[in-house]
């Protein structure tokens, strides 16, 4: 699991994004979780407090929320919060992203701060194809914005596409699906094809 942590959130405090509330569950305020942490039992203990990332128009904007109960139901993680006692209250939180303060001596597996990623070389098939220009955060996933020549390429920051982040070596390794960097490949293939056609014509 990969995750990016903006270190400018919450007045400069380092925070970890640990989950997203995806849908209401049952009638007593439960919410199904999409987990962004490898240790949910530790993160979602009773009394754990989270900062909410929600649209400005949401009644929850600028508020925190406290865990009342966490359990796994039918294979899915479900969380209950203080003051969210019914389905209507739960539905008002759907799509909210949960952030928690990070202890100074704490390291979450596969989590990096934005500033650690910006400037890293992007390597595909042992070839540098660009450099990380910035990180964009969206509810569904984070994106690495890769500068490649005059182009900016949006790379989903998920393990299937970005399997390796090596901050010490100054690079990330990408295994993109067809089409993501295809213009680069097409250009090279086109030059070789034109050369071959020219030789055939002679």
* Biggest sheet character: 6 strands, antiparallel, barrel
Encode the helix/strand succession as letters.
Answer: EEEHEEEHEEHEEEEEEH
- What percent strand? 35-45%
Using only CA atoms, what is the Rg? 21 Å
> Care to count the β-strands?
14
Question: Would you write up a description of this structure?
Answer:
This protein is an alpha+beta fold and 202 residues long. Helices cover 16% and strands 41% of the residues. The chain has helices spanning 40-43, 87-91, 114-117, 182-201, and strands spanning 3-5, 15-25, 30-35, 49-53, 64-73, 76-81, 97-101, 111-113, 121-124, 127-137, 142-148, 151-156, 164-166, 171-173. It has a six-stranded antiparallel β-barrel. Strands 12-11-10-9-14-13 form a six-stranded mixed β-sheet. It has a two-stranded parallel sheet with strand order 1-8. Strand 13 and strand 14 (171-173) form a beta hairpin. It is elongated, with a radius of gyration of 21 Å.
Can I get a quick summary?
By secondary structure, the chain is of the alpha+beta class. Helices cover 16% and strands 41% of the residues. The protein contains four helices and 14 strands.
Task: Please tag this protein with its features.
alpha+beta; six-stranded mixed sheet; about 15% helix
Give the helices and strands, then pairings.
Layout (H helix, E strand, L loop, with lengths): L2 E3 L9 E11 L4 E6 L4 H4 L5 E5 L10 E10 L2 E6 L5 H5 L5 E5 L9 E3 H4 L3 E4 L2 E11 L4 E7 L2 E6 L7 E3 L4 E3 L8 H20 L1
Parallel strand pairs: 1-8, 9-14
Antiparallel strand pairs: 2-3, 2-7, 3-6, 4-5, 4-7, 5-6, 9-10, 10-11, 11-12, 13-14
């Amino acid at each position: 699991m990969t995750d990016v942590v903006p270190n400018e959130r919450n007045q400069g405090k380092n925070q970890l994004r640990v989950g997203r509330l995806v849908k209401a569950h049952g009638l007593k305020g439960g919410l199904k979780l999409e987990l962004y942490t490898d240790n949910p039992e530790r993160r979602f203990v009773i009394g754990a407090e989270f900062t909410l990332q929600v649209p400005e128009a949401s009644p929850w904007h600028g508020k925190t929320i406290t865990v009342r109960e966490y359990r796994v139901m039918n294979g899915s993680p479900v969380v209950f919060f203080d003051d969210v006692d019914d389905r209507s209250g739960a539905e008002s939180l759907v799509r909210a992203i949960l952030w928690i303060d990070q202890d100074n001596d704490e390291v979450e597996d596969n989590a990096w701060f934005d500033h650690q990623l910006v400037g890293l070389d992007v390597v595909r098939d042992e070839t540098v194809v660009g450099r990380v220009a910035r990180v964009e955060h969206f509810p569904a996933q984070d994106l690495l914005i890769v500068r490649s020549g005059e182009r900016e390429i949006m790379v989903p920051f998920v393990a299937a596409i970005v399997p390796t982040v090596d901050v010490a070596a100054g690079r990330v390794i990408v295994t993109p699906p067809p089409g993501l960097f295809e213009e680069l490949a097409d250009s090279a293939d086109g030059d070789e094809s034109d050369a071959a056609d020219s030789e055939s014509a002679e």
